[in-house]
TrEMBL record:
<dbReference type="GO" id="GO:0005737">
    <property type="term" value="C:cytoplasm"/>
</dbReference>
<dbReference type="GO" id="GO:0008745">
    <property type="term" value="F:N-acetylmuramoyl-L-alanine amidase activity"/>
</dbReference>
<dbReference type="InterPro" id="IPR051206">
    <property type="entry name" value="NAMLAA_amidase_2"/>
</dbReference>
<comment type="similarity">
    <text>Belongs to the N-acetylmuramoyl-L-alanine amidase 2 family.</text>
</comment>
<feature type="domain" description="N-acetylmuramoyl-L-alanine amidase">
    <location>
        <begin position="23"/>
        <end position="171"/>
    </location>
</feature>
<dbReference type="GO" id="GO:0009254">
    <property type="term" value="P:peptidoglycan turnover"/>
</dbReference>
<feature type="region of interest" description="Disordered">
    <location>
        <begin position="1"/>
        <end position="32"/>
    </location>
</feature>
<dbReference type="GO" id="GO:0046872">
    <property type="term" value="F:metal ion binding"/>
</dbReference>
<dbReference type="GO" id="GO:0071555">
    <property type="term" value="P:cell wall organization"/>
</dbReference>
<dbReference type="Pfam" id="PF01510">
    <property type="entry name" value="Amidase_2"/>
</dbReference>
<dbReference type="InterPro" id="IPR002502">
    <property type="entry name" value="Amidase_domain"/>
</dbReference>
<dbReference type="InterPro" id="IPR036505">
    <property type="entry name" value="Amidase/PGRP_sf"/>
</dbReference>
<keyword id="KW-0961">Cell wall biogenesis/degradation</keyword>
<keyword id="KW-0479">Metal-binding</keyword>
<protein>
    <recommendedName>
        <fullName>1,6-anhydro-N-acetylmuramyl-L-alanine amidase AmpD</fullName>
        <ecNumber>3.5.1.28</ecNumber>
    </recommendedName>
</protein>
<keyword id="KW-0862">Zinc</keyword>
<keyword id="KW-0378">Hydrolase</keyword>
Length: 198
């Protein structure tokens, strides 16, 4: 399969595995910042339901909140991520990697606040407790080289690591060891091991 690549505007070039779904929920990175941090998330709407259009609709501010009782709590929320990796491995891009997507919220990394300023956010379609699909990990191995060729990424964290106590994703179902091995991250670039994994 052909490799993924970003164009000069920070969008993945045309590829059978890629969909563009531009979100209005973004702005410029401040002070010429570039992305040095990758943040992994998970999302499913309604929770635990996969394959629908609700995540795309949320990031494009056109979610039908009346379609499911749980969705009403999201009314008025303006969020986005750079990418969504669907269960079948398809990749949806919402925001140019040159821009600041609104994915991390109140957060900090290495004593620096506002992780949106200097990060790229990837949403995995899933939940904290349901194992992610092999196709999703395979999609990440396609996506990561394109991101690293363009941006000086030097670390990866879960949302849970940059917003502890507030967020729990991508959760224990995310295989950090596989992700690190498949994408050639050094141990020091990955989140600290939990006590049970040491």
């Amino acid at each position: 399969m052909s490799k993924l690549a970003l164009d000069r505007h920070g969008w993945l070039k045309t590829h059978p595995n890629v969909q563009h779904a531009p979100s209005p929920n973004h702005d410029a990175r401040p002070n010429g910042d570039d992305a040095v941090l990758l943040v992994m998330h998970n999302i499913s709407l309604p929770p635990g339901v996969f394959g629908g259009t609700e995540v795309i609709d949320l990031f494009q501010n056109r979610l039908d909140y009346t379609s499911h009782p749980w969705l009403e709590r999201l009314r008025g929320l303006t969020v986005s991520a750079h990418f969504l990796v669907r269960r079948d491995g398809r990749i949806v891009q919402f925001v140019s990697t040159n821009m600041r997507a609104w994915h991390a919220g109140v957060s900090s990394f290495e004593e620096r606040a506002r992780c949106n300023d200097f990060s790229i956010g990837i949403e995995m379609e899933g939940t904290d407790t349901v194992p992610y699909e092999p196709a999703q990990y395979q999609a990440l191995t396609q996506l990561l080289p394109a991101l690293r060729n363009r941006h000086p990424l030097r670390a990866v964290r879960g949302h849970e690591h940059i917003a502890p106590g507030r967020k729990t994703d991508p959760g224990p179902s995310f295989d950090w060891e596989r992700f690190g091995r498949d994408n050639q991250w050094l141990r020091r670039q990955l989140p600290p091991l939990s006590p049970s994994r040491r």
